Structure formats: C-alpha cells, structure tokens
C-alpha cells in the first residue's frame, strides 16, 4: 500500500502520479561498411587523452543507490526527499497505457470512487503484472473498500515484486494491527524501518507496540 497520497489514512507517505514516458528514437545515420581486414579503432585508441565513457546507469542501479541513501539519511527531511525520488521510479511502469490508467485510478481513489478505482487497477495489473506499484495501489483501494483479506493478498504480490516497498509494509502493519495480530504487525514495522529508518510514523507504531509485544514474549 502507498503512503499519504495513495492511502491517506492507513499509509504513511504520498506517491506522485505516474509519469508518461517516451520519445521516439531518432533515425540511424548511414555509414559505409569497413574495408576487409581493417580493424576499427576505439575512441580511446584514436584519442587516448579522452577517458572512456562510464557505463550507462540502469534504472535498477539507480534505485539501488537511492535505497542506500534512504537507509543512510540523517534526518526525516533528507529521507523524505530520497523517498520521493524512489516513489517517482515506482510510479513508472514503462507502458504509457498502464501509467495513464494508474493516474485515473489514483484520481478515483481520491474521489472515493473505489469500485471504479479497483476496476481500473484490475486492467493495469492485466497489462503489467510485474509492476509492484499496481498491486500496491489495488491493495490500497481494496482496503479502503473494506476488503482487508484481498488487500493482504495484493500486498503480498507487491512485496514479492519489490521486497523493499515500505508503503506495502506500512499497509501490512496497519491491517495486522487492526486484526489484533500485534506481533506480526511489529515484524512488519521493524522490517519497514530497516529500509526507511527515518520514517517517524513507523517509529511511533513500533513504540506503541513494543511494550505489549515484547512484554508478552518475555
């Protein structure tokens, strides 16, 4: 489940609307084929003073670095800035159609049109079943519609695809706590804090559960 924007009551942070991607590729420039027996020089061979370009940063590598920064953040304000960048990446499916449907679903949730939101998110998941945020958003809509069981199932699917999804962990903690399963709720919140140590709402949840859960286990 998401944080404030996607889940205003039960989750802890906001999620910006999905961003459409894409610009068409340019036309490839025609170049003559090399003559037989000629070894084409590399850029660094032709001009050794120019350093080789670093490898392109993939989205996964960028996300890994952002999670490192999130874990190392020294203040809640710094952590929120990094979390916003993470959530912007989560909001992109790679499909313009899925992103548009996601935006409409989020608008429907905000308008409390939950049946419409769930229907739209069903379509998003059918288009992009590997998109963790689609499962997380539907978990949110299902929870708000009063279907905690299906919401838990979708949270599990979101975490299967993105185990560091702190929004889904927050939603899991909320539902387990409402069901009276404080011990497992504590596990969810502590796992969340391993990923996002500066999340104040999660810290408060752990503190409110600590005496009862730890005392029960003592």
CATH superfamily: Tetratricopeptide repeat domain
Question: Could you spell the SSE succession in H and E letters?
Answer: HHHHHHHHHH
Unreliable stretches (pLDDT < 50, length at least 5) are: 2-46
Named CATH architecture: Alpha Horseshoe
How many helices?
10
Give helix % range: 55-70%
Tertiary shape: globular
Distance between the termini: 32 Å
The largest sheet is:
none
**Tally of separate domains:** 1
Instruction: Find the count of extended strands (DSSP E, 2+ residues).
Output: 0
Mind sketching the topology for me?
Layout: H1 43-46, H2 59-72, H3 76-90, H4 96-110, H5 114-127, H6 132-144, H7 148-161, H8 166-178, H9 182-195, H10 200-217
Helix pairs in contact: 2-3, 4-5, 5-6, 6-7, 6-8, 7-8, 8-9, 9-10
What does it look like?
This protein is mainly alpha-helical. The chain has a single domain (60-217), classed as Tetratricopeptide repeat domain (Serine Threonine Protein Phosphatase 5, Tetratricopeptide repeat). The chain has ten helices and no strands. The chain has helices at residues 43-46, 59-72, 76-90, 96-110, 114-127, 132-144, 148-161, 166-178, 182-195, 200-217. The chain is globular. The two termini are 32 Å apart.
Please name the defining characteristics of this protein.
single chain, 218 residues, mainly alpha, Serine Threonine Protein Phosphatase 5, Tetratricopeptide repeat, 10 helices, globular, disordered N terminus
